[in-house]
UniProtKB/TrEMBL annotation:
Protein name listed in UniProt: V8-like Glu-specific endopeptidase
PANTHER family: PEPTIDASE S1 DOMAIN-CONTAINING PROTEIN, SERINE PROTEASE
Highest taxon, organism lineage: Bacteria
Keyword annotations from UniProtKB, A to Z: Signal
Keyword Transport: no
Organism: Arthrobacter nitrophenolicus
Length: 320
């Protein structure tokens, strides 16, 4: 029996219809799937009180944070149920067969990619995220389930730690001032829209992307592109202390085609949720999805198709 292992596992400043990029995006534009196109873009937003969030996250709390994979599994049970049985977190934490080589490669820290820490339901969690180009120069892309229960409450104590490595926060701990998520996620927990954006407060009088840079973003792209994904997997056999990556050609999720998602070969585990997918084979590409979920034993990471709905959410966040 196939079981789901949930993973935690711009710039529309130039043109709202354009593919936004620091570097040029590859691939021709294509119409989104029906799962995206038939829904009216609508965005839920919440203003955040960040008082004490940076101080809240001590080194011990960051180390003890729970990989966010359980949240995606819970979202599936509450909202858009999977066609296969859900296994909340357990599947992503099973160690590979002894001697089996992992797919994920080790990476040096990247300034604009980091770890996301937050509290939901009284528990502390960890995911991954990426700073993206935006009008406000302060926007971070992550998984929807790393911001909102889907459906349910929004997170508290949210911080972004760019270029995290072995407990170090070389560019500081950035606190959030506002969250944005598609209502399809925040109201229904629909895995097709498992993406969220957090707008960060200034730190030391500076905006986030002025300090660490930001990736361009792309929407409504062709399917089957080559991607490189990044994240901080924290569930076994990884420890969440260093950045990992996977590279491969995307293919549709045959287990749950209603999600309209795509997957690439990858065995990153819980904690990697929300990490960016870049078109091409490097972190200098444009972001076009995030790490969302996987299936036990499949060694495939799935991410939502970034179509018009997620584009509208990004637009709202980018100018906030």
């Amino acid at each position: 029996m196939t079981r789901t292992r949930s993973l935690a596992s711009g710039l529309l400043s130039l043109s709202a219809a354009a593919v936004l990029a620091v570097a040029t995006a590859g691939g021709a534009s294509a119409a989104p799937d029906a799962t995206d196109d038939k829904n009216t873009p609508a965005t839920a937003s919440v203003t955040v009180e960040d008082t004490g969030a940076a101080e809240y996250w001590t080194a011990d709390k960051m180390k003890a944070a729970i990989p966010g994979d359980v949240l995606a599994g819970k979202a599936l049970e509450r909202g858009n149920r999977s066609a296969v049985p859900v296994e909340k977190g357990k599947g992503s934490q099973v160690s590979p067969t002894r001697g089996k080589q992992t797919i994920a490669a080790s990476e040096a820290p990247v300034k604009h990619i980091g770890k996301v820490f937050f509290t939901l339901g009284g528990a502390n969690y960890v995911c991954s995220g990426n700073a993206v180009s935006s009008v406000n120069e302060s926007t971070v892309a992550t998984a929807g389930h790393c911001l909102n229960e889907g459906p349910g409450a929004f997170a508290t104590n949210f911080i972004f730690v760019p270029a995290y490595e072995n407990g170090a926060a070389p560019y500081g701990k950035w606190t959030a001032r506002k969250y944005f998520a598609p209502t399809q996620w925040s109201a229904n927990g629909d895995m097709a829209y498992d993406t969220g954006f957090a707008v960060m407060n200034q730190l030391g009088g500076k905006n986030l992307t002025d300090v660490v840079g930001g990736s361009g973003v792309a929407f409504n792209q062709a399917r089957g592109l080559t991607y490189k994904s990044f994240g901080y997997p924290a569930a076994r056999p990884f420890n969440g202390e260093t950045l990992k990556s996977c590279t491969g050609t995307a293919s549709n999720d045959a287990n749950n085609p209603q999600f309209g998602t795509q997957g690439i070969p990858c065995d990153m585990t819980g904690g990697s949720s929300g990490g960016p997918w870049f078109i091409g084979t490097s972190s200098s590409g444009v972001q076009n999805s995030i790490n969302s979920y996987g299936y036990s034993g499949s060694n495939v990471m799935y991410g939502p198709y970034w179509g018009t709905v997620i584009q509208a959410t990004y637009q709202s966040a980018a100018i906030s």
